[in-house]
Write a structure and sequence with these properties.
Immunoglobulin-like; 4 domains; flat
Length: about 600
């Protein structure tokens, strides 16, 4: 029995095996089925004694048979010896008429077993009934005209001539004069079209030459032709089962139990897009009517911080394949590849509309007032028969010095992005130009809070004394630098190494949670890059720093590896995702391995 259905056992194989016996049998619910109908099939393997592992059955290759697994079950029984069984259940769905040999094999204990005799499934085709109604070639919104057919399969298009990429609406309807059992047998084909689903309609009443019919809406599709020419749409078919009132229909086909009714194929004439006025590298699916807008989540930020720019395109047409023009270059800022959103599709009447967003992560590199230029979208408007271009409004961005930025260095980076900058400025190269700054930084000198023009005698004497003291310190500093300079440089290297050890420790501690991991790793990598570049790399933006490293002979592979890791750190720090512990651990290992190489020694 298969699921309560009486089965016909059609194949058995009994074979002695080393250490036991193997029996393979099969059960087929019916020897004969119609095309598209499912039939239950079960293969059972019984073993006596120890014979080894039982594999799943292997079916012969057959393009006309779909095999759907329904699970397996095992059992045990005891008599004179233990008997083990395992059954595999399937649903077989044939897609073409003919005889299918079910030459199934199983592998038990490393040995193949088959069925004898081999079961055969006979598949009976469905009669095909010609449709008395057929749309006129090249017509749109056509209607059936012959009421002699009790069932009419009727496909239509709303436009018979369009441009490449222009929307065409397709409907597949079934007109029924008397009650029948109708099932979809084969779907229409839409080769050379991009397809979107349209919402289904409700059943309605209509007439063919005064005769009443029920009209069942089948599938409805939006089609976007992908090339020029006469593009066909394959007609789908339905299977109609016998019912009262359909006797004459079936008698015309010899009294069969079912008939197949095919919908006529259609052809749409697709025109190429005009060459006149076509923008360079125009995207053929940019056909319709669209708009584009850009917004930034903020227009003032500190150097080294990031903003999110959102570019939104919307309108009527194939929004999934719509592509804006190439993204413009940004001055004073670094932009990453956008993250596109899943398109939002809506329908307004019979027309398809939608929108799609692109989110850019933009990092401010230089202090000043910068402009995010206009982003453009070129498209062909089929209603006007010409190309159009829409643009966003340029956005002004104000970048202010970041916390801890060095005085007099407009390109100094945000402290979080370049934590080693100040150390590298003073610790690398041949030493500071002014030996006084080695002893006392200018930012630590006393500042006057008085007003100009209010200096009295005492203030003047104090100022003279201060100047004398400073000059003395300068002279003493010069002498001390001559004697202690190398020791100071060694101290600077020690400070730098301590900072790196601290950043490494922070990164290792944050691998599990990700909290602060990318900030520490970014600082470590950028500091190592500045140290490798020497005095020439202090205070530079990332791309300029990488250019210096390349000029100094660092391999392109290492530069790209560094750029990739720094970009990944930026993406995570500014909200694009923090990854998982395994990816963070691998990234930290990659960074440690890279900066430990001989090529990364401080110049």
């Amino acid at each position: 029995m298969l699921g309560g259905v009486s089965c016909l056992f059609v194949g058995v194989s009994n074979t002695a095996a080393a250490g036991g016996e193997v029996a393979v049998s099969a059960a087929l619910a019916s020897r004969s089925v119609r095309v598209g109908e499912a039939v239950a099939f079960e293969v059972t393997i019984e073993t006596v004694g120890a014979v080894g592992e039982i594999s799943a059955p292997r079916f012969p290759r057959s393009e006309g048979l779909e095999i759907i697994g329904r699970g397996s079950r095992t059992g045990m029984s005891w008599g004179r010896s233990a008997t083990r069984s395992r059954s595999f259940s399937y649903a077989l769905v044939p897609s073409q008429a003919g005889k299918i040999s079910l030459d199934v094999h199983v592998r038990v204990g490393g040995k193949d077993y088959g069925l004898s005799p081999v079961p055969v499934l006979e598949v009976v085709g469905i009669s095909t009934l010609p449709n008395a109604n057929s749309p006129t070639e090249g017509s749109a919104h056509a209607r059936p005209t012959d009421p002699s057919d009790p069932v009419v399969v009727w496909p239509t298009v709303d436009r018979a001539e369009v441009y490449v990429g222009e929307q065409v609406n397709y409907e597949f309807e079934i007109w029924e004069r008397v009650r029948s059992e109708i099932t979809m047998h084969s779907m229409p084909t839409f080769k050379d079209y991009w397809v979107e689903e349209l919402p289904t309609k409700s059943e309605r009443r209509d007439q063919i030459s005064g005769v009443g019919y029920r009209v069942h809406p089948g599938l409805r599709r939006v089609l976007f032709p992908q090339r020029a020419g006469r593009l066909p749409i394959g007609g789908g078919t339905v299977a109609v089962q016998r019912r009262s009132g359909l006797g004459s229909l079936f008698r015309r086909r010899g009294g069969g139990e079912a008939v197949e009714i095919g919908g006529p194929p259609l052809t749409v004439t697709v025109k190429a897009l005009p060459a006149a006025g076509q923008p360079p590298n125009f995207m053929a699916n940019n056909v319709g009517v669209f708009s584009i807008e850009a917004t930034a989540d903020r227009t003032e930020l500190a150097q080294g911080d990031a903003l999110t720019l959102t570019v939104r395109v919307s309108g009527e047409g194939n929004i999934r394949l719509l592509k804006p023009d190439p993204w413009p270059n940004l001055e004073g800022m670094r932009s990453y590849d956008p993250t596109p959103s899943e398109p939002e599709i809506t329908f307004e009447g019979e027309r398809i509309h939608g929108s799609k967003r692109y989110e850019f992560l933009i990092v401010a590199e230089d202090v000043g007032t910068w402009t995010i230029p206009a982003y453009t979208l070129s498209f062909f408007d089929p209603g006007r028969g010409k190309y159009r271009r829409e643009s966003t409004k340029p956005l002004k961005i104000q970048v202010v010095p970041g916390k801890g930025a060095a005085a007099g260095r407009p390109e100094a980076r945000h402290e979080e992005a370049d934590p080693d900058r100040r150390a590298e400025d003073d610790e690398l190269g041949d030493g500071p130009e002014d030996p006084l700054t080695q002893i006392l930084g200018l930012e630590r000198l006393p500042r006057s809070s008085g007003h100009r023009g209010e200096t009295g005698p005492l203030s003047w004497r104090t100022s003279v004394a201060a100047v004398s003291g400073i000059l003395g310190l300068g002279w003493a500093g010069g002498r001390l630098y001559g004697r202690l300079g190398p020791d100071e440089r060694q101290r600077a290297r020690s400070v730098r190494e301590a900072q790196r050890r601290e950043q490494l420790a922070q990164a290792h501690a944050a691998v599990a949670t990700g909290d602060g991991f990318y900030t520490a790793l970014s600082g470590l990598l950028h500091g190592a890059a500045v140290a490798r570049a020497g005095a020439a790399g202090a205070g530079l933006t990332r791309e300029r720093l990488l250019t210096v490293l390349k000029d100094q002979g660092l391999a392109d592979q290492e530069i790209e590896s560094l750029r990739g890791m720094l970009d990944a750190c930026d993406g995570a720090r500014f909200g694009a995702g923090v990854g998982d512990p395994e990816s963070r651990k691998a990234m930290l290992t990659q960074a440690e391995t890279m900066i430990s190489q001989r090529t990364w020694r401080v110049r």
